[in-house]
Design a protein that fits this description.
This protein is of the alpha+beta class. It has helices spanning 22-30, 64-67; strands spanning 2-3, 12-17, 38-44, 51-55, 58-62, 71-75.
Length: 78
């Protein structure tokens, strides 16, 4: 298990757990962040900037401090 920040660009992972903030988790779930969902890291911005992600057909950007709280299982799919 690794955090979302450990993925490299183009790599996918399977979400294992979200943040410790229950209210923020409800926002993430509304955007498709659910346990066992496949997530792909499209791009990391420089200087600890936002992470550009794809979940299903949805693309979203999240802050690095949120990405480091999301635990994923590295996937071999691309």
């Amino acid at each position: 298990m690794i955090t979302l920040t450990a993925l490299i660009e183009g790599q996918t992972g399977i979400i294992q757990s979200l943040t410790n903030n229950i209210q923020f988790n409800s926002r993430l779930k509304a955007l498709g962040f659910k346990k066992n969902s496949l997530i792909k890291l499209i791009r990391k911005a420089k200087y600890n900037g936002p992470f550009h992600l794809q979940i299903g057909s949805t693309e979203i950007m999240i802050r690095a401090n949120i990405a480091e709280q999301i635990i994923v299982k590295s996937s071999t799919y691309s």
